[in-house]
Design a protein that fits this description.
The complex is a heterodimer of chains A (301) and B (290). With 301 residues, chain A is mostly helical. Helix content of chain A is 71%, strand content 1%. Chain A has 13 helices and two strands; from the N terminus they run H-E-E-H-H-H-H-H-H-H-H-H-H-H-H. The radius of gyration of chain A is 25 Å and the shape is globular. Chain A starts with 13 loop residues before the first helix and ends with a helix. In chain A, 41% of the residues are buried. Chain B has one domain (82-289): MetI-like (MetI-like fold, Orthogonal Bundle), CATH 1.10.3720.10. Chain B has 13 helices and no strands. The two termini of chain B are 46 Å apart. The chains are: A mainly alpha (301), B mainly alpha (290). At the A-B interface, helix 1, helix 3, helix 4, helix 5 and helix 6 of A face helix 1, helix 3, helix 4, helix 5 and helix 6 of B.
Chain lengths: 301, 290
C-alpha cells in the first residue's frame, strides 16, 4: 500500500531523484561490464591476434564455427561438466548434512557455525596452495594419514594421474564452497516451523519420513538456489586450476576456463578467446534457465 | 527417553567433531607447517605441532621487504609485503566506495516509485551473470591500450563494478526493513530526500552498511583473475597474485610458500571471525560469493 507522502518542499520528481542517486553506480557498472561485454562480442566476430598486429579483420561467425567443430572445445567442455557435476553433488550433499546438524540445538553450535567462515574466507588461490601442500607427493598430510592408516603402502602423487587428480580437485574446490551453501541451507531449514515436525512425530513418522516428506519439500526453494548458483560457479572454475594443476596432467583438468585463459593470454588470440568465452557464457546461462525451470516446476507439483 | 536424548547428543557431537576437523583441520596444518623447519616437514609420521617454533620464514618476508636483493631471500618473499599493502589498499578502497556509491543507488530501489525501477534492479543483478573471463579479455585489451594496465587504481575500479551489484542488492533489502514511518516523520519535519537519506536511513542502516563493507573487502581481497591479468610488476601485484607466484614455483622452499599462504589470509580470516554476525546476516540476505 502506498501512502501519499507529505511534501513540504519543492524538489525533483521521484524518477529524477532515482536517476541522480543511482547514476554513479550505473555509470561504473556500464563502463566495466556493459561496455566490455559489447567489445567482447565485437572481438569474438574478428580475427584478432596480438601476435599478428595489423591483421585484424571481421570474420563473422567463423571463430564460433571453428570452436564447435574442434575437439579443443568439446574435450574441455566434457571436462568442465565432469568437474561441475561432481563438485555440485559433493557440495550440496555435504552442506545438506552439515546444515541438518547445525539445525539441531546443542551447546557449541554457534561456535561451529562461526568456524565455517574460516574456509569461506580463504581466497581460492590460497586454497589451491593449501591443497597443493596437503597433497604433496613427498610431504603431504593426505599421504601421511592414508599411509599411517595402512590404506596406501607408499606415498602417491595424486595430482599426477587420472582419476585421482579430478577427485582431489573436486574435494579441494568444494572445501571453500561448502560453508556458504551450508549457511544458505541452514537459513532455509530455520524457516520450517517446528510444529510440523511435532505433529508428524505424533502421526508416527520416523526420522527418514520426516526428512523425506517435510524437510526436503520445504527446503526445495533454497536447495534450488544453491544448486543453480554452485553450478554457475563450478562451470567457470579457473583460480584453483591455475595454481593446482595448470590443466594437467595431459589436459586431464583442462576445463573451459583454463582453455579460455591459455587461448587468450598465452597464445594471445583474443578473437578465438572471446568467442569460446561467449560459448561458455551461453552454456552457463542456458543451463541456469533449464535448471530453474525444472526445479521450479517440480516445486509446484 | 533419557537414553534416547543421550544417544542424540552423542551422534550430534560425533558429527560436530568431524565437521570441526574438516573445517579448520586443513588450515591449522598449514599454520603448523609454517612454524617448522623444512626438513621436519619430511618426518614420518608427520610432526603435528612445531617443535621448536621456527620463525625463519616469517623473518624472511620482513627482511626481504626491507633489504631487497641484499637479503638473499627468494624474489616472491621480497615483494610479498608490498603486495599485502596493495591488497589492503584495493580491498579497502573498494569497500569504502562500494558502500558509499551503493547506498545512494540502493535507496531509490528500496523506497521510490519510478518507471524502470524493476528494469534497473534486474539490470544491476543480471550484470553479474556475465562470466568474468569473457569480460576480462576486452578489459585487459582496453587497459593496455589506454595505459591503465599495471595500476592498482584500475584494480579498484574493476573490482568495484563486480562488488557493486552485490552491495546494492544487500543494502536495498536492508533499507526496506527500516520503518517507513520514521522517514515520513522526517519528511513532515521538512527534510529533503537527501536529508532523509543522510539523517535517517544511513544512521539506522549502520549494521547493513557494515555487513556490505566487510563482504566487499573480503571478496575483493580474494579476487585473483583480474589481479593476475592487470598486473605486470610488483607495483600492482596483490597478495593473491604473489601467492600464486609462490605456489607455482618449484624452486622456492615449502616453508616460504606456506608462510605466504598463512600471512595472506590473516586479514580475511581475522575479519570473518571478528565480524561473523555481520557476515552471516549479510550472506543470508540473498547474496553469494562469486
Amino acid at each position: 500500500m502506498q501512502f501519499q507522502r507529505p511534501n513540504t518542499r519543492k524538489e525533483p520528481s521521484q524518477g529524477m531523484l532515482a536517476i541522480l542517486f543511482s547514476a554513479p553506480a550505473v555509470l561504473i557498472i556500464a563502463a566495466t561490464i556493459l561496455a566490455p561485454f559489447c567489445i567482447a562480442v565485437f572481438l569474438s566476430l574478428h580475427n584478432w591476434n596480438l601476435k599478428r598486429p595489423g591483421r585484424e579483420r571481421f570474420v563473422g561467425l567463423e571463430n564460433y564455427i571453428d570452436w564447435l567443430t574442434d575437439s579443443d572445445f568439446w574435450e574441455p567442455l566434457r571436462t568442465t561438466f565432469t568437474f561441475a557435476i561432481l563438485a555440485v553433488v559433493v557440495i550440496v550433499l555435504l552442506s545438506l548434512l552439515i546444515s541438518l546438524l547445525l539445525n539441531e540445538k546443542f551447546p557449541g553450535r554457534g561456535i561451529l557455525r562461526a568456524l565455517l567462515l574460516v574456509p569461506w574466507a580463504i581466497p581460492s588461490v590460497v586454497n589451491a596452495l593449501l591443497w597443493k601442500w596437503l597433497l604433496n607427493p613427498q610431504y603431504g598430510l593426505v599421504n601421511a594419514v592414508l599411509f599411517e592408516l595402512g590404506i596406501i603402502t607408499e606415498y602417491q602423487n595424486v595430482l599426477g594421474s587420472m582419476p585421482s587428480v579430478m577427485i582431489w580437485l573436486v574435494i579441494a574446490y568444494s572445501w571453500i564452497h561448502i560453508p556458504l551453501a551450508t549457511l544458505l541451507l541452514l537459513s532455509g531449514l530455520q524457516t520450517i516451523p517446528g510444529d510440523i515436525y511435532e505433529s508428524a512425530i505424533v502421526d508416527g513418522a520416523n526420522i527418514w519420513g520426516r526428512f523425506r516428506y517435510i524437510t526436503l519439500p520445504l527446503l526445495r526453494p533454497m536447495l534450488s538456489i544453491v544448486i543453480i548458483f554452485e553450478m554457475i560457479f563450478a562451470l567457470k572454475v579457473f583460480d584453483i586450476i591455475f595454481v593446482l594443476t595448470a590443466g594437467g596432467p595431459a589436459d586431464a583438468t583442462n576445463v573451459l576456463g583454463w582453455q579460455i585463459y591459455t587461448e587468450t593470454f598465452r597464445k594471445l588470440d583474443f578473437g578465438a578467446g572471446s568467442s569460446i568465452a561467449m560459448l561458455l557464457g551461453a552454456i552457463t546461462l542456458a543451463l541456469a534457465i533449464l535448471f530453474y525451470a525444472i526445479l521450479d516446476r517440480g516445486a509446484e507439483r | 527417553m533419557k537414553a534416547r536424548a543421550r544417544l542424540r547428543l552423542i551422534v550430534i557431537y560425533l558429527g560436530a567433531a568431524i565437521v570441526l576437523a574438516g573445517t579448520v583441520g586443513p588450515f591449522l596444518w598449514l599454520v603448523s607447517s609454517s612454524f617448522q623447519y623444512e626438513r621436519q616437514l619430511l618426518n614420518r609420521p608427520p610432526q603435528w605441532l612445531p617443535n621448536p617454533i621456527v620463525l625463519d620464514s616469517y623473518r624472511e618476508i620482513f627482511e626481504g621487504a626491507v633489504l631487497g636483493e641484499a637479503s638473499g631471500v627468494p624474489y616472491q618473499s621480497r615483494i610479498f609485503l608490498r603486495s599485502f599493502a596493495n591488497s589492503f589498499f584495493v580491498a579497502g578502497s573498494v569497500a569504502a566506495i562500494a558502500v558509499l556509491v551503493g547506498a545512494y543507488a540502493a535507496y531509490p530501489l528500496a523506497r521510490l516509485t519510478f518507471r524502470g525501477r524493476s528494469v534497473l534492479l534486474f539490470g544491476i543483478l543480471a550484470s553479474r551473470l556475465i562470466p568474468a573471463l569473457s569480460l576480462a579479455i576486452p578489459i585487459v585489451l582496453v587497459a593496455k591500450r589506454i595505459g591503465m594496465s599495471d595500476k592498482i587504481v584500475t584494480l579498484v575500479f574493476i573490482n568495484l563494478s563486480f562488488i557493486l551489484p552485490y552491495v546494492i542488492w544487500l543494502l536495498q533489502s536492508y533499507f526496506k526493513t527500516i520503518p517507513i514511518e520514521l522517514e515520513d516523520a522526517g519528511r513532515i519535519d521538512g527534510c529533503s530526500r537527501l536529508q532523509v537519506v543522510h539523517k535517517i536511513i544511513l544512521p539506522l542502516s549502520l549494521p547493513g552498511l557494515t555487513s556490505a563493507g566487510i563482504l566487499a573487502f573480503l571478496l575483493t581481497w580474494g579476487e585473483f583473475l583480474f589481479a593476475l591479468l592487470l598486473s605486470e610488476t610488483p607495483a600492482s601485484y596483490t597478495s593473491t597474485v604473489v601467492v600464486s607466484l609462490f605456489a607455482t614455483d618449484v624452486d622456492v622452499s615449502f616453508v616460504s610458500i606456506i608462510t605466504a599462504g598463512v600471512v595472506s589470509v590473516i586479514p580475511p580470516i581475522g575479519f570473518a571471525l571478528i565480524f561473523q554476525r555481520f557476515i552471516i546476516s549479510g550472506l543470508l540476505s540473498g547474496s553469494l560469493k562469486g
